[in-house]
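Hi, here's the filled form for the chain we discussed.

Project: internal
Contact: R.S.
Residues: 352
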Amino acid sequence: GEALSSKTNRIQQTSLGTKLVSSLRDALGADCCVLNAGNIRGNKVYDADKKYFTYNDIKTEVPFDAEMVVMPLPGKVISETVKFTRAKSFLDPPVSFGGYMQISDDVTFDNETQSVTHIAGQPIDPDKIYSTGILFMVMTGVDNITPLMDWASQNSHLFPMDACSEMGRPAKLLLVDYFSKAIWYQMGAFKDIDVDNKGHVSAADVKAAAEKHFGDSVAQIYVDNVMRAADVNKDGKITKDELLRVNMMNAWARRDMDLNKDGVLDREEVETFAKKILGDDFDRTLVDTMFAQLDTEKKGHIEPRAVELWMTNSFTLEGVSVPGQTLERGEIKAVKERLLERSNSKTEEGGG
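And the returned structure, exactly as it came back:
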């Protein structure tokens, strides 16, 4: 397979940068995602035959909180931002810059024109608003990315500092949470996991199914995270409604659900998917419940924005376990303090 690399990610797009940022996009439910290279720190090439990306690998590559938010950015701002952060890489010789934007796999950057040509896999619309996963600290001035700072200053109402603790989500926890959800689709249908037909999936079932899928033993912390990702009522049992719910949070599963590829999920598509993973005799009220949560405007289909908001509201910091990870939210505290100091300084200057 392809050897993943995070080497020289401050002057070029890297294979690991693409994988991590694309996974963050999916974890956030966003249209696209960008991440400053300075937050991907491993600077290493992984063996081409490496089978798994582990917790330790994630911690090595993303050692900081790297709090992520989703912002409604116009296409032209995204393009100008990526161009600005990559400008130094076109110098001779290239100059390393921690703000160099690594981009998700649905974003295309043309080195010749030094512009973004595609977002969400489609030709860019400069005026269209794209839900964009981006580093929280960048929105407050880190790396001094001028196009982004100009937009942020003109749209401060979209980025209220008093709500940033709720808006931000640490990248490491996002990745672990998303991968813990994604494995459910890979493990197969309900009957494939609940092999003894007891009507629910236990932690022992998850361990057996995961080890069958990977062809190797899995650690208990992995099993715990996979269970927590789906166990809404925290009773230690995954039921059919919880399996359908956790699969709805998986971007790959949603892409497979969208049979006509129109970007939304109608009831027939969701029922077809539910039949596939829950069995021919699945309870259709489970789909009714899903639509009640995600189609609040009664349009008859589920839109990406609804999924993004639902996933945001469903994510909890305490729902993911990563060895050595704290929940102190140091980045958010530091930014608040810096902005408060800046505000006080301006006040003093005005009063003087």
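Let me know if anything looks off before we file it.
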